[in-house]
Fold these 2 entries.
Entry 1:
Amino acid sequence: MSAVPEIRRSAGSKVWRWVRRNKAASLGATIMVIVTLAAILAPWIAPYDPDEQNIILNLGPPTAEHWLGNDTYGRDTLSRIIWGARVSLFVSITSISLAMVIGGAFGVVAGYFGGRTDRIIMASMDVLLSFPSLVMGLLVVAVLGPTMMNLIVAIAFTAIAPFARIARAPTLSIRNREFVEAGRTIGFSDLKIMVRYIIPNIADEVVVLGTLWLATAVRTEASLSFIGLGVRPPTPTWGGMIRDGFENMLDAPWLVIFPSLAILTVMIALNLLGDGLRDATDPRLRHE
């Protein structure tokens, strides 16, 4: 009964070797490692306190002491970008992980049982898919209020439906495979079959979608912060930094440019990594 976990570990090592040989995916992974380490080590590597104000440095341009300049309150832009990475990554990773668990569970249940259960679940998912992710997130945060936890819930809510659909499709083909029938024959419950046999065999597709949706989550978090529905100030967020610098964009363009570049860099890196993982899990492209 341990064959399935061993097969998945072997497949995982092959995927990792493929990603390492894919230059674009390797670049994306490297960038994300650097950004993640910077976020984790922010208290030690940020040159200044992100909330420390110095009115003398109001709208100060980039200098040797403040590499990315200062904002309207004289706060160091580089330090706030580094600390902002913490918020962006934490919100994005937590919300997408939550969506993967909830949406994946819905998809597995719908695909495994089929029939009326499948129709009800997928009809509900189609309703969620009818709303653009940003609009759905905006509605949820507007109702619940602009806090970090509500922001996580809002972004997760927008991503549940895609994960349900991506989990349902392979479940439909796996539920009648020989090893699943063998589990039923020896008396395994439906829950045990789904956990032991279905989920390990669809994990690749769900993880790949999760990597791609992380980029969407970063964009959504920044967009909601930009319109004032993100984490409350003075906590630094990339979208909030862009909003604060928007009014002085002509006089101090660095206040908008550098946070925007941070968002763009992370989104490109996540898409490169996600594309590499998708290619690695596609049997038509993998020759090992």
Entry 2:
Amino acid sequence: MPIRVAIFNVSMEGTNYVVLEQAVKGNELSQHLQARNHPQIKNIAEIIQRIRPDVILLNEFDYSPQSSLDIQHFIKNYLQVSQSENPIIDFPYFFAGPVNTGVDSGLDLDGDGNASGIRGDAFGFGLYPGHYGMAVLSKFPIQTQQIRTFQYFLWKDMPNNLLETVKNEDGSDYYSEQAQQILRLSSKSHWDVPIKVGNQSLHILSSHPTPPVFDGYEDRNGKRNHDEIRFWTDYISGSESSAYIYDDKGQRGGLLGEHFIVAGDLNASPVEGSAMPSGISGLINHPRINDTMSPKSEGGRTHSPDNINGAEHTAGWRMRVDYVLPSSSLKVANSGVFWPTQDDPLHHLIKDRQSSSDHKLVWVDVDMSK
């Protein structure tokens, strides 16, 4: 029987609820999850209830030391409450971990003369630790002891990395030697979260690379985005390509398993936008990836009627950036993007970021019995 795996950048982060200056405490999400009545979160829950995934990665779900409680509140107060008379949905298993956003690097990384500890001087852009975090929710047991996280993996330790090419116009290094020694690859984190489905494991390879914009001539974000995506390409490519990788517990090497899904808002398209196309193209076209049934929607097509790729778009700003990429060991039964057209009664759920998110939920049905 197919299982449905989804990714949804839910915009459940502090600056979506208060003005920028007030979001520095990072507790806005917790307050709304306890209050049970925030309209944007109710719409997020309704979308999930309608699509009914078995496993879902939430991007931009703020992380904090009380994230387990936050996720429980989201499940109990929103997902287990019928939204617009839809059947409730439950996820007995979940995982959330720390991310690099808002974590003080101790250095002036963005070159503004002030080592602020936040925004561009953090290991990942953010106003507080855990900003723009992630969470995996599952109906199937998560093999907790086998989870691998790569929050601390250093960018410099990736062979042929693009960190070495981050240069100013005069050819000098954008990052100081000290910065190059401590910079982490992941702007949030990379996670390998194995899910137990029957007697098999399905590895949910989760991440949220930095947007390849908001920089300058040096293209530091574009190059980091490329290498964050390339990490997964190497991770699934076998021992020779993945030997350099080490996780946060010191275990070396890449994927140990047959079935996987690369999931996340990867902030890159091979045909549109500012990303270096070789990063995302290398992943999509990898022989261990099955992208034969790329998710599509009528809403995306009508949103960009003059764009040949419009049906594959997953964000309101007209690009495919959110991915659920199954391994070639899996048979894809169906896929889609939740994007109702403007004349659909459900369009109010996705019309803008305040309604739910500027991204759409993307899902794929896979059969592990192939």
